Amino acid sequence: MNESNEPVGRSPSLLGTHLAAIRKDRGYSLRHVEDLTKKAVSNAYLSQVESGKIQQPSPNILHALAAAYKINYEQLMGMAGYISAGKKRGGATPKSSALAELNLSPDEEVELLEYLQFRRAQKEKSNK
Fold first, then answer.
1. pLDDT digits (tens, 9 = 90+) for 4-61
2. What is the CATH number of the domain that holds 98?
C-alpha cells in the first residue's frame, strides 16, 4: 500500500473492466463519453475508473455513464459496492445476463470480459 492506503499497482476492477468493455464495444473514445455525459465524466476520470485506479466512482458518475451507455444503473451501483450485487430494490434478482446463473467469482467475470475483448479484437482484425 502507498501513503493514501491504495494498493500499489492495482489491477482493473470488475466495474472498470465492464465499463471499458462496453465503451469499446460501442466504439466510443474516452473523449466521446465525456461529450455524451456533458462533461459530467471527464475522459481522464473514466480512464482511471477503467484501469482500476478509482474503484468506487460516485453514484452521480455511475448514473451519467449508465445513461450514456444505455445500460442498467442499478447493476453499476452493485458493481461499485453501493447496493448488493445481483439484487434490485425490492429484492428481485435481475436476469440481465446469460451468465448470471453461473455464480462466477468477480475474478472470473473480469477474465471473461477480458477474453471477450480479445476475441472481438481478433475478429475485427480478421475482417479488415
1. 333 334 556 889 989 998 998 889 999 999 999 999 999 999 999 999 999 999 999 9
2. 1.10.260.40
Look at residue 102 and tell me if it is in a domain. yes
The C-alpha cell that represents 86 in the structure block: 445481483
Number of domains into which the chain is organized: 1
In the three-class reduction of DSSP (H, G, I as helix; E, B as strand; rest coil), residue 41 is classed as coil
**Among 41, 13, 10, CA closest to 113:** 13
How far apart (Å, rounded) are the C-alpha atoms in residues 29 and 12?
Answer: 18
Distance from the first to the final alpha carbon of the chain: 44
Domain housing 94: 14-126
pTM of the complete model beyond 0.85: no
Residue 98 CB-density burial (10 A; 0-12 exposed, 13-18 middle, 19+ buried) = exposed
**Residue 8 resides in a domain:** no
Q: If we measure between CA atoms, which residue out of 54, 53, 55 comes closest to residue 9? A: 53
